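> @MW can you paste both from yesterday?
MW: sure, first one:
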Amino acid sequence: MPCLLITISLIHSHIWLILVQMLFHILLVRCGLFDWYI
């Protein structure tokens, strides 16, 4: 049971990490800083 909880928490943190990266990417594009970011 603890292993299952740890796995779920890891998956959730991974999903949040992807969401944050996506939001950051969208903000960069909207601000016109995408060219500088690359």
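MW: second:
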Amino acid sequence: MQMGLAIATSRKIDPPAPPDNEEQRRVKVAQTGIVGQDLASQFEIFGDVVRLITSADQVMINILDGENMFTIGGCGVPVDPLMGLPQDMSMCQFALTSPEPFLVPDMSKDDR
């Protein structure tokens, strides 16, 4: 599946400081072998579960490799797991700063 991508450049996202375990995290992500694979159908079930719990219209399951973010699964939105977005332009970089789940109730109202 091919998808287009439009990135708004009018707002600069200041990236958070990398977590203390960033190098170890990058190594573990690489070891999964997920990046570069189209495994979206295998991750769709997690999107379905999150959608049921949160009543969200759309769910995206992302993985960050230290340079890019890849949407590896989702629900209610088409995904292209082979298309990366620079990690420093993603909302998901903020999820690395805490072990707590990172939920954004309404992206249109989030200043990040």
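> thanks! The first helix runs from residue 22 to 32.
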